Amino acid sequence: MTQALDIEQLRSETPGCAISTHFNHSGSSLPSNTVLAVVTEHLQRESLYGPMEAAANAASQIDEARADAAGLICATPAEIAFSSSGSAAWGLAFAALPPLVAGDRILVGRQEWGGNLSTMQAAAKRAGARVETIPVNEDGSVDANALAAMIDDRVRLVALTWLPANGGLINDAAAIGKVTKAAGIPYFIDAAQALGQLPVDVSAIGCDMLKGSGRKFLRGPRGAAILYLRKAFLENLEPAYLDVLSSTWGEDGPNVRSDAQRFETSEKPIALLLGLGAALKHARSLGVEAIRHRIRELSGQLRDQLGAIPGVTIHDLGTEKSGLVSFTVAGMAPQTIRSKLAEKRITIAANGIPYTPLDMMARGLNEVARASVSYLNTTDEIDRLCDNVAALVQQAA
Ligand SMILES: Cc1ncc(COP(=O)(O)O)c(C=O)c1O
């Protein structure tokens, strides 16, 4: 039984809800008053008492944020590093893997985030290695059985974007994890759209690395992200660079920390991390199960209503779907839909090929409009969005 969320109360604590009809929670959601206050109050303390001195006083709250990040995904605090963005976190972990050599293979899901894919492609090209796409099931999700058939002793990494940026698909991350675990191959998960939207248990999934940004469904401030590295896995990773936090200077040179903070630097945005901490506490107090329940209901409703408008096509793959709803309107480019809705203070996104290149190209899509739903949205807002899309369909005809 999940707790019912008091949506009116939650919206009243979120100033952005009064300004616009926000359907871009997967790009960046609306922070609460509390998150805003935590960030700005720390910046004020920095200016009054000195940033280093203010940070020393905030140390236990940063520890709490780390514990809450761990709690959110059923990990331990020693397995959590903070980073500036999801992509930076992913890149740090990738760069710490043993170098690729000619003939090595990396297997990726078809919906892999474009940034991760570029990082892998560039490294593979330098080494003479290959990045290969795992086939998909009929519903568009990454096929774990097909992955199992691709495994050989040259596979160095399996990378999955759990919930892609270009629509409602939820991949079966645990099914992929079973295959990688049996084969003893490192398994990286991009959970950018999952954190704060779906319950996450890293042990049940069987991943070695998982990352996500704080600004999306968690509703934290921009510029803060969470990197999970499984304890036994991280001990064998060699960070691309070190500093005075990630290592100490010993007689024989640097001694690298044993925990995930080997991927952090001493200098960090304390105000943002405190804001992320407040957002994590809030999400956990609401309960991610309850959040998931509401997002499922609202996004299902949005999909049904949008899909019923003649001239609108829904592009979401998968069986069980996330809060990201992707669509196109006959005769109108997604960027035009986005900007016309913005004139009415309705915010959505438009995604081109670069965010999910393999999937977009495989499906012959150049761009989709994306409306992403948070628990903060209401059925009135869904009606408003759909009425306005219907009006755009008329204009395009
Ligand atoms: C699946 C996925 N991965 C990665 C990112 C990028 O994350 P960041 O901007 O924090 O690097 C996004 C952003 O939309 C995303 O949807």
Automatic annotation (TrEMBL):
PROSITE patterns, per the entry: AA_TRANSFER_CLASS_5
A molecular function (GO) term: lyase activity
Cofactor: pyridoxal 5'-phosphate
One Pfam family, short name: Aminotran_5
Residue ranges occupied by any Aminotransferase class V domain in the UniProt entry: 28-385
Keywords, in A-Z order: Lyase, Pyridoxal phosphate
Nucleotide-binding recorded as keyword: no
Superkingdom of source: Bacteria
InterPro entries: Aminotrans_V_dom, Aminotrans_V_PyrdxlP_BS, PyrdxlP-dep_Trfase, PyrdxlP-dep_Trfase_major, PyrdxlP-dep_Trfase_small
Record bears the keyword Lyase: yes
Similarity section: Belongs to the class-V pyridoxal-phosphate-dependent aminotransferase family.
PANTHER family (UniProt xref): BLR4730 PROTEIN, CYSTEINE DESULFURASE
Name of the protein: Selenocysteine lyase/cysteine desulfurase
